[in-house]
Task: structure prediction
Amino acid sequence: MTSVPETAADTRKISLLRVLGPGHVWALGVGIVLVGEFMGWNFAVGKGGAVGALIACWVIGILYTCVAMIDSEVTSTVAAAGGQYAQAKHIIGPLMAFNVGLYLVMAYTMLEAGDALVVGDLLASVAAQTGHALQREPFVLLTVAVLAWLNYRGVFMTLTVNFVITAVAFLSILVFFFASAPWSAGGMLQHKALLTDLPYGWLGVLAAMHFGIWFYLGIEGTCQAAEEVRSPARSLPYGTMSGMITLLIAATLTWYVCTGLLPWEYLGRAITPLYDAALVTGNAWLEVMLFVGTLFAAVASANGCINDASRAWFSMGRDRYLPSWFGAVHPRYRTPYRSILFLVPIAVAFAYVVPLDQVVTFSILSGLLGYTFMPVNMILFRKKWPLGSISRGYIHPFHPLPALLLLALCAMTYVAIFLGYGTQLAAMLVFYIVASAWFAFHRYKFVRRGDQFTMPWPRPKGY
Amino acid sequence: MSLWTLAEYAAWAVSAVILLWMLADMLRIDRSYDEDLLTSSREGELE
Result:
């Protein structure tokens, strides 16, 4: 690892290391999301029934495919840590960028807290089987501390570990699917007996959209690696699009296996649906594999979230949107070490104080606000810098259809969330409005306005 | 004392050691290097 000598006369600059490839980008995106296949998505079954959850899975899959396509095009051009924050800064403006940066930090830090809680709950459930009432708090702290340490020590090892554990978790879903022998008429899957009509009609399907997000929440996190990949124009689109394909496969297989083994009334309330489905098979190997898959998926998600939240926080510090102290890079490990460490107590506090469903709902809301920004960003990007005016690593097809579709699906999902979590939605919007006022009237005077726009682009069309 | 209770104490202890190590390393780095160097990273710049 390249380190910087400890001399006062040193005039070198320190930056994040460009050491990642497309596999690491895949591991970052899929690693953050895959835990949603092991838990959470099934609440969509409780809202809309098994078929309603499948509709939600695929409709929200279209939403996220639009997100992945749009992100791949813009990020292959704006190759900077901070991802969508840096995109918003260059394409829309500082106030939008500040808000997007906050969405990212809140979404990932809360998801990290939720993941750590899941690890604690899983270990507590194992201990309960031996008759011990395990405290989950020390294991929540241990999860966050170990993963923060890994992130502190370097991005290459962090995302290599994520690649391995994410691959194991994904394989556990594939093995479960093939072990359930879906081609066999007399096999263990009982779709004919278990699938019903829509129990709450189309309103239930709409409500299920909220939890359909769990299948894919966080795939846009691949953009945070933009400043650390060796070839952003190639690695980011490959990693993001292959990640999205992986998730579409994993989501559909998960739905298929779970709805063939568990009645929708139980599935809609289960905490660990894939693991519970494995228990129903009575196969000890599958039980162990799905337990390990669930544990690894939660750890991989927390690991990716620490990586992404710290990059977004670091980028805002570097641009002085936050105190510039956060914009420091470790001279030996080349990581945003102050941002990583600063966010540790915040994640632990969320995990200890806020209930799991509230933590994840706030994370989803922050993510959804970020997705709503993307179509506006994309339309302005193509308008200000039309094709041919700057080099793009990837050009998404059918513009502006994906952007308009994404906007419409976001609007529909807001309605779905309002049906179940209207108070939280209002509280979140108030928080961002207050934060925006603080930025516009207080913080922005510290920003060096000329320094924040770094892309060597031509003057935008019409300016 | 059961194995689970020991695991709980071990989790608290290991977490404390890791967090203190990171804190100590951050303070050491902050004292050893000039602040301008540590915050010299610029978006879009390659070494």
Notes: Residues 437 and 443 of chain A are 9 Å apart (CA to CA). Chain A touches chain B through 52 residues (CB under 8 Å).
